[in-house]
Amino acid sequence: MHESLKEKVLEANLALVTHQLVLFTWGNVSMRDPGTGHIVIKPSGVPYDRMQAGQMVVLDESGTQIEGDLRPSSDAPTHVILYRHFQKIGGVVHTHSQWATSWAQAGRNLPAYGTTHADYFYGKIPCTRPLRKDEIEGDYEAATGRVIVETFGDKDYESIPGVLVHGHAPFTWGRDAGEAVYHAVVLEEVAKMAFRTEMLGNRRSLDQYLLDKHYLRKHGKDAYYGQD
Description:
By secondary structure, the chain is α+β, with helices and mostly antiparallel strands. It has one domain (3-219): Class II aldolase/adducin N-terminal domain (L-fuculose-1-phosphate Aldolase). The protein has helices spanning 3-18, 76-85, 98-106, 115-118, 133-137, 140-151, 177-199, 208-219; strands at residues 27-32, 39-41, 57-59, 65-67, 91-95, 162-164, 170-174. A 7-stranded antiparallel β-sheet has the order 4-3-2-1-5-7-6, with helices on both faces. The longest helix is centred in the C-terminal third of the chain and has 23 residues, at 177-199.
């Protein structure tokens, strides 16, 4: 079942290594089949250099495992909740990439300091509130998903395709696994740039009109960046 999707999910997971977003087994990618709603995700704790497409795990929409001999990523409940609430996404990525994770550990929103950020994220990338003790001691991974959804209560998850989980690390998403990985790479780069920007003495976010120009020329109804 979903053999082609498993190949795509394997490729996306290996891309995290290529782009130096993960060490050891510190990350995971999933992708949702738009027809069935089934979710294909990497297995838990399997090293990337030994990972195979046949090891990918298939979950139904509720997160119940329906195919695979290995346990799914421990973050699977977070992915399931994101798919449930962010209806238009088709791929989710979680990493512990160094720069983005540093902002998460600091409990800081990631400001839009420049046009590189504005090309992909329409405003600051939010950091969630800290999870409460009862949330951590309960269904921790599901609580992580819920706090992300809570954080986006007044935000557009399509125009800001990523989040920093307080004290933890980033999640990104997209129309498919490939786009979610792309957003993870961009998030890591803008997190690095933002840190250096602050070290150089600037904490003034980009003017709204410049943010608008750069985001909307790529994503707005009259977008003109790239080829038709």
